[in-house]
Amino acid sequence: MNRTKVDEEEYWNSSKFKAFTFDDEDDELSQLKESKRAVNSLRDFVDDDDDDDLERVSWTGEPVGSISWSIKETAGSSGSNHEGREQLKSRNSFSYAQLPKPPSSYSLSSFFRGRTRLGSFQSLSDALTDTPAKSYAPELGRPKGEFRDYSNDWSPSDTVRRLRKGKVCSLERFRSLQDKLLLLEEAVSMHDGNVITAVLIFLKRTLSKEVLFRELEVRQVALRHLIHFLKEIGDQKLLLDLFRFLDRTEELALSHYREHLSIQDPEKRKEFLKTCIGLPFSVEDAAHIQDHYTLLERQIIIEANDRHLESAGQTEIFRKHPRKASILNMPLVTTLFYSCFYHYTEPEGTFSSPVNLKKTFKIPDKQYVLTALAARAKLRAWHDVDALFTTKNWLGYTKKRAPIGFHRVVEILHKNNAPVQILQEYVNLVEDVDTKLNLATKFKCHDVVIDTCRDLKDRQQLLAYRSKVDKGSAEEEKIDAILSSMQIRWKN
Amino acid sequence: MAFHHRPDAPELPDFSMLKRLARDQLIYLLEQLPGKKDLFIEADLMSPLDRIASVSILKQHEVDKLYKVENKPVLSSSEQLCFLVRPRIKNMRYIANLVNADKLAGRTRKYKVIFSPQKFYACEMVLEEEGIYGDVSCDEWAFSLLPLDVDLLSMELPEFFRDYFLEGDQRWINTVAQALHLLSTLYGPFPNCYGIGRCAKMSHELWRNLEEEEDGETKGRKPEIGHIFLLDRDVDFVTALCSQVVYEGLVDDTFRIKCGSVDFGPEVTSSDRSLKVLLNADDKVFHEIRNEHFSNVFGFLSQKARNLQAQYDRRRGMDIKQMKNFVSQELKGLKQEHRLLSLHIGACESIMKKKTKQDFQELIKTEHALLEGFSTRDSTSYIEEHIDRQVSPIESLRLMCLLSITENGLIPKDYRSLKTQYLQSYGPEHLLTFSNLRRAGLLTEQAPGDTLTAVESKVSKLVTDKAAGKITDAFSSLAKRSNFRAISKKLNLIPRVDGEYDLKVPRDMAYVFSGAYVPLSCRVIEQVLERRSWQGLEEVLRLLNCSELAFTGGTKDDKAPSESLRLILVVFLGGCTFSEISALRFLGREKGYRFIFLTTAITNSARLMEAMSEVKA
User: Is the confidence at residue A111, as pLDDT, over 90?
Assistant: First the structure.
């Protein structure tokens, strides 16, 4: 992230890509603004009778008469009639761009009359008469019974083909394991997942699970369909049995862990997570699960405590900055931010203190500093910010150090509207001169810019900067003083 | 600057017929339940339905009230209820609850479930288990091809991606085969057929079976579309993971184009209302900028604005008669153009604002570095910082996947530390997301063996393949290496160009990614079309892990009109991006082809990541 503007330009120049900048001062944006002005200036002329070629739309922007709109209407009117009327009233004032007019209604009779197309297309009515199984002609008129086969002597491949066509087809005659497997293999070789699942549903019903699992273990395509099917219908028990049988321990653990997502109550969720801890996860995942449990445990304690503090109304920080949401089930970094915001000064011994969180979850320095900085800057606690970067060496000298780089510190401070004096201090700590100059210019830290130019003995740049500061300001005076100084041997 | 096709480019077939067919089928189905009825529609089907029918059509067929299928008590008092749904288990449970509640209350009504595009046995099983099989009648509405534009057909099945590429469920293959069968019945057989990927191969086989079963239908028909190309999304994840910079792609990344239309919020319309706008070839302004690199769009729009100004200004010197002419003939067009122009200018502004805020340039730079394979360390720390600062979870995930695929997996140390930081920043439950990504081959860890020399790995590959036999074959994504760097070299995906890449006058398909990268998927298609076969691409296929999964076929029709041989239907299984569409439109323009796109859904990096995410945002 410590690439400066100059670096960027170098990259774009040295590379063959056209520099495509998303910069505010860019020519192209001003071009765009100009076009916008031009277009807007025409608006008066255009807007007078805007409605003629537009369709009516509702408040959500759906065209009135569209299906999505109509559904919302039903929902609205069944809920509160009053609101519905309000919508109706205001509807006319909205315009809608460019939706097609409702297509002319097409009668059923014309469907059967059919259409000819450039001589190269047989008419639909032909299509309907010559092959009744035509895929696009619905074969729904006839009762389903007609498809039912009572003969029970379809071969596996015929059966599978009938299943693909969506016909009801009894599988009961496939009673021997060999027949069942033949049927399954036939389904797999046809590739239609729906048919594979249909056969699996039958096998699941008619085979013991040990036999079913054993046979599927060597039939991976079918196995995947069964797993997906069990996931979809939510047969968690059989799914876990299956993973256990297959010795897919990680999937077993993850699948069990997934269940926590549907548990809303925090206490129950916590208890459930506890049961996940001993599961056969990979080593690193086991640590994540443990952390998940510990995190929720902490959050429950913090939440109870803080809700109490907040409602008591005695604690200043909660009065000044009421909590926007509960901390339950938030990510660790969010929790850390929260604790840096509300519990920054607490001793390490308390569960809600940032230092405690950092230790418990082994949060890297970088992440900690980044989060603490953002939280303290948001509260405009500049002393804390200062302390965050101050270190003492063994001789007792203090030194400023930032694991995330001071350019990043400056950006975060700026985002939180830090005053110029504060910004200036940190801009000065940026090591790379070009980056420093860029940041100082961007954030209007005049002193830093001026001093840096002086140190660089860059008269031209200083002159250029003079035109950017206010006339008669202290900065201008300072620049003039430096420019007229005889002490400096300018390089240009 | 806009895209104009060569004068000899073939005409596109008329796909509006597909809309009429779908509409007529639906009407037919509604009439199977005569009398007044309330219609319950699944949310995901509403937009596609809107594109082919209207409320008045439904009303004409005695639909009384419309409801959305959602978890709320049903207030309908109608005697007949009709459900229009995707074949999903949760819909079956919803219907079962409703019917069983009626039964408990001693109420009898008629129920009909219309599955679109087809029903699944698992759904029927649930109806049976819930004891309502027979109480409800089931039908299928084979509406699987929605023309979103003159050259774009969508199946509107975003779940295809997760179902197949993550879960390995082949349930949609029949739907694809049926759709292709329908196309060949309507537009003639395809003389040339190419494909790559396991799903492509299976769809092709099932489709061929269908054609054989219903032999004779396409016989003697002149082909309208000369080539069909089927491609699996997992052949090229990289392209789908990149940030898009052509206008249409950028609009999709920024505002989400849904079923061919986009909701422009107040920040775009510069008013207090949102506007739903259809984005297709009918929008004259959009049509000219959709395939352009974003940096060209401003220039075009301001030129357009100036022209418009000039045309309006002409009215100043007019007498009454001229003015009358002007108002009756030109004004409407100008006003329409004005409206569109201000919308797209608003959209551009809004995009610029958002992109400046998120430091888009830095992001693009990192992506390019990943594609080219330099300063991987820097890219890794860039991603790390993204995560630490809790920048959008989807964005961080996308960058990690891009890093993984371009580098053949992350080195274990990086994998572990990025994963830990990710879980800390965005929540521990994403453990499940990581497991999904690993299974799909999108985010993997380099195995210790991956550092072997080429010879060694070749040998070990032979050994494991033989030993494990069928099993590894079926579940190969875990073992697959992406080999992106080698493929990129082989197919010349990173153009070596001296000087600056002029985005105004693109020289190759790389322009859709600022000249940095030719989309892999599109390059493969280009190469195969040039050769009319896979010959000479054996090494590429090996690197793509597709040696056994590339095929050619077709009806080899000598009578195919030469016109048709320049029409190519590209089928993306698992979704395609607008950048790929733009790139192929460009290729078509260069070579005098026209491409037609059939996709299971329009996708982009965010949609891919969301499909893999276990925690819904």
Answer: no
A364 → chain B, closest CA residue: B421
- Amino acid identity of residue B12, one-letter, is L
CB B464 within 8 A of CB B452: no
CA distances from B600 to B6, B62, B155, B603 (A): 29, 32, 5, 9
> Which residues, other chains included, contact B239 with Cβ-Cβ below 8 Å and sequence gap of 6+?
B519, B520, B521, B522, B577, B579, B580
Chain A CB contacts of B273 below 8 Å: 59, 61, 94
H or E segment and range at residue B452:
none
Q: What is the ipTM of this complex?
A: 0.92
Q: Which residues contact A412 (CB under 8 A, 6 or more apart)?
A: A370, A373, A374, A377
Residues in B closer than 8 angstroms to A74, CB to CB, are 65-67
Q: What is the pLDDT of residues B136-149, one digit of tens each?
A: 999 999 999 999 99
Closest CA to B285 of B307, B269, B270, B263: B307
- For residue range B202-227, list pLDDT tens digits in order: 999 999 999 888 766 556 678 899 99
DSSP structure string for A229-249: HHHHHT-HHHHHHHHHHHT-H
Spatial contact of B27 and B54, defined as CB atoms under 8 Å apart: no
Whether residue B387 contacts residue A371, with contact meaning beta carbons closer than 8 Å, is answered with no
pLDDT in tens, A444-474: 888 888 888 888 888 888 888 888 888 888 8
- Characterize the bridge pairing of strands B227-232 and B192-196: parallel
Structure tokens at A332: 């660790």
Closest CA to A193 of A169, A235, A215, A222: A222
The DSSP 8-state label assigned to residue B328 in this structure reads: I
Interfacial A residues in 355-394 facing B (CB < 8 Å): 361, 363-364, 366-367, 370
DSSP characters for A389-405? HEEE-TTS-EEE--TT-
pLDDT at B272: 85
